[in-house]
Amino acid sequence: MLFAFCSKLLSRSELRVEPSQRYRTTPHNVASHSIPSSPSLRGSAMATLRETTWPAHQRLERRLDVKARFSDICAYRTHLEAMWGFCAALEQRLGPEQFGAALSDCASRRKLPLLTRDLVALGAAPDAVERLAQCAGLPDCTDTSAAFGSAYVLEGATLGGRTLLPLVHARLGLSAAHGASFLASYGELTSARWRSFGAALDAWCSTATRSALAAAAALATFESLERWLCGGPG
After folding, report:
1. What's 178's domain CATH number?
2. pLDDT greater than 60 at residue 32
3. Is the pLDDT of residue 43 over 80?
4. Is residue 69, in this structure, part of any structural domain at all?
C-alpha cells in the first residue's frame, strides 16, 4: 500500500536507484513505517498510541505483499483504488467538526485528493473514481480524541511513503508529479507535519481518558485497514 509499512521487506537492490533519483531521508522518514521513538515521546499520548498499535502494525506489515502491490502499473493502480476506498470513508469522519481548533490544519492533511489525482494520472475517469467501493466498519470518530487516533494511522503512513518514491520511479516510471503524489504526501515537509500532528495530539490527549480513547480508535483503524486490504484476520 502507500503505507510503506512493508518497504523494509524489499531488498536493498530493489530500492537502489541512481543518486539523482534519491530523496533525502531523515530520522522520521525511514524505510518502514516504524513510528519514531525518542525521549520526548516517553509517557506521551503519542507513545501510548505507538505501543498500543504496534502488534497490529506488525501484523499488517507481515500480511501485505509490497512486491506484488508495486510489481506493475495495474497492481499499483489496484492498490491505490483500495487506499482511495479506505481514505474516502475515513476522511469523511475526520473533518473540522471533529477537530475544531485542536487540529486546525486537518483539511490540508486529506489524502483523498492525492489518491484521486494519481488514479486519474494512471488513466481512471474521475467519475469512475468517485464510484469506487468504500470501506465499511470504521471506528466511531465523533469524539475528538478518537478522531486523533484514527488520523494517527493516516498521518503515520506518510513517514514511509516517500521512501517508496525511488522504487516506483525505477520500477514504474512514476513520480510525485505523475502518479505517485500519494506516496510523496507532504514532500519535504513530511517530518515537520508529523511533528506538528504529534504536538496537537499530545496537547489534546493530555489526560489518561483522552489518551485511551485515541489509542482504542487508532487500534480499531489499523484493524479496519487490515481487513480492507488483506481480508479477514491473518
Report:
1. 1.20.910.10
2. no
3. no
4. yes
